[in-house]
Specification:
The chain is an alpha+beta fold. The protein contains 4 helices and 7 strands. Strands 1-2-3-4 form a 4-stranded antiparallel β-sheet, with helices on both faces. A hairpin with a 4-residue loop joins strand 6 and strand 7. The longest helix is centred in the N-terminal third of the chain and has 16 residues. The chain is globular, with a radius of gyration of 15 Å.
Amino acid sequence: MAEPPVTLAEYHASRLDELISLWRASFEAGVGVVDPHPLHEQRAYFVDKVLPQHAVRVACAGDRLVGFIAASPESVNQLFVRVGWQRQRIGSRLLEWAQSQSAGSLWLYTFAHNRVARRFYEQHGFVIEAEGYEPTWRLADVRYRWTRAG
């Protein structure tokens, strides 16, 4: 049986637990680490730090949350697709939404060893702006920038 089409929608608080679960699983799979933070801390971080400063869009296949993005007109704070749902243009559609809502450029960070994420962002026109180190995770990171053509 075919999956229902994926639609983008504005985030609603009723999706919080599902979003946090998706975020955790996708982060751990993509970065290759086990997140030691309790889920209630991740929920609080999302509600207190991410939501007030970013618009959040979700991707849904029927009633199932399959991805989300948190972005401001200047940056992408979070972009995750449910494990097993990658390579179906879900991340691309979410990123294209952020680009269309941007002030003409966006910056974001990803971990240096996350080759899949790096290739994805580079395929969408992002270029390396700086390389650094993220002390919380003790991992090298890369800052990317995208600028609208013209």
